[in-house]
Structure formats: C-alpha cells, structure tokens
Amino acid sequence: MSRDETTSNLGLFRDCLSNPLVQRSAVGQVQSSRKRRSKGRKTSIKSVKDDTDCDGSGQGAAEELAEFIDYLAKEIFESFPSEAQSLSYSAVQNDPRLAEKYSDPLPSATLEQILTSVSPSVAESLQTYSLVEEQSDLPKFLTPVIQEYVNAATAAPPIWSTTRTSACEICDRDWIPLSYHHLIPKQIHSKAIKRGWHEEWRLNSVAWLCRACHSFVHRIASNEELARDYWTVERLMQREDVVAWAKWVGR
Questions:
Q1: In angstroms, rounded to a whole number, what is the distance separating the alpha carbons of residues 31 and 60?
Q2: Residue 14: which residues within 8 A CB-CB, separation 6 or more?
Q3: Angle at 50 between CA 47 and CA 54, to 5 degrees
Q4: Cα separation of 213 and 181, whole Å?
Q5: What is the pLDDT of residue 249?
C-alpha cells in the first residue's frame, strides 16, 4: 500500500475514534481537566491553547479537543501492526489469511495483538481527560473503534453508478448536467489487468463530470495515460493544466 493510502487509513481511523470521544467528552470537561495533566509528560497534547475565547463561545476548548483527537489517533494508529495500518479491500481479497484474521467480528487473537501494541500513554491520556474511569478500561473503549475501522478499511467499493455527485468533480459547478467518466477507460481494461495496473474490482470506477470537463480530460491524455496515471479525480487534479481549466471554466 502506498503512503497516500496509509495516510488515508489514518484519517479513516481518526473518524472512527472521534465519534466516541466527542460523545464522551463535553468540551468543558476537556477544558477543565487540562490542569490535571502531568507536568512535562510527552503524552500531553501539543500546542494547546491555555485561554478560552473572549466571547465565551468555547472555540478554544473545541480546538483543544480536535487537537487531542488528532494526537490520540496518530499515537494509536502508528502503534498498530503494519498489516493493520495498510488494510484495504484489495488486501483481504488477495490474502485469505488476512481476510480471516481481520474478519467481522475480529478474532480475539487479532484484537489482543492490536491492543497490546498500543502504548500505555494512551490509557493515561484518556484517564487524564476523564474519558475512561480506569486505564484498564482501554480495551473496552478501543475494541468497537478498531472493529469499525477494520470494517471500513476492508469494505467493498460502492456500486459506481450510485456514487453520483451533485456537482462536477473537477469544476464544482452544480447547475449543469453531469455524465460519468470512466476513470479507467473501457478500451484499456484488458491491458490494465494484463500489465498489473489495476485489479478487476477497480475497473468500473467513475467520476461525475460536466460535458466540458469530460471532454477536456480526454483531450489532455490518451486512454492509456488515463488508465495508468490519472485513474482518480485526485490524480487528475494534481495536473496544473486541470487546475487552471477548472478555475477558468468555473468562473
């Protein structure tokens, strides 16, 4: 798995972790518990604001909670075994051992391996912020989070025709008709499989584009180039000419 995909999994894990943290944590509790943190401890939140907003809106406390979630997600995720960090639908489809190990529900051995890899500082931080009563409560807190992450990371791709957006994915105009663009052109499917560019499940991925942007994409690259190099909207938007076009056509 590429670094970009691993980074995406970190973001996915953060989303899974943030829900229970937000539910358990009133912003005021996080603000008041700051004083109870151990002095000089490296597990403390970095760059936390020490003052609240003048208007009493609690924005400072909300920012602190967001920073805490970012810190905790990174601390936990980076402690996972590498195979857990790089989970994907493709990975479990191509490795029966991995599919069994990260099935739903997670086998107790898998959970134990993941949980024992988590630094004790995580439990300390959660207790400091009154998010768990005892440090021994960490497995109970993290188990549903880990299961949700594994399920999301290994989920099958959507039926591409159901992914329709409300606006063009390049120029962002939402008032014109859209059509779907095969990110991996059909004429190249056989070659893409034969040369190992893509797995079969990805071949029918699409982007929803207006007619102008759809035509532009096919002007700037051949079908083979699209299939090999520009098979996501994100990759297309890394091109300067696409960015310039989107800015111009969306005026």
A1: 9
A2: 69, 70, 73, 74, 77
A3: 125
A4: 10
A5: 93
Distance between first and last Cα of the chain: 38
**Omega within 30 of 0 (cis) for the link into 105:** yes
3-state secondary structure (DSSP) of residue 167: coil
> Looking at this protein, which amino acid is placed at residue 234?
E
Rounded distance, CA 67 to CA 75, Å? 12
Could you count the other beta carbons within 10 Å of the beta carbon of residue 186?
11
Question: How many angstroms separate the CA atoms of 193 and 195, rounded?
Answer: 6
Give the model's pLDDT for residue 65: 82
At residue 49, the 3 state secondary structure works out as: coil
Task: Report the Cα 164 to chain-centroid distance in Å.
Answer: 20
Taking only the tens place, the pLDDT of each residue in 37-58 is: 444 444 444 433 344 444 555 5
Structure tokens at 63: 């920012």
**How are the residues of the chain apportioned to helix, strand and coil, as percentages rounded to the nearest 5?**
60, 5, 35
Tokens representing residue 222 in the block: 């051949």
Residue 179 has φ and ψ, to the nearest 5°, of: -135, 160
- CA–CA separation, 16 vs 149, rounded Å? 6
Contact residues for 123 (Cβ-Cβ < 8 A; gap 6+): 132, 135, 136, 137, 138
pTM (2 decimals)? Answer: 0.64
DSSP string, 83-129: HHHT--HHHHHH-HHHHHHT-SSPPHHHHHHHHHHS-HHHHHHHHHT
**What are the φ and ψ backbone dihedral angles of 180, each rounded to 5 degrees?**
-95, 135
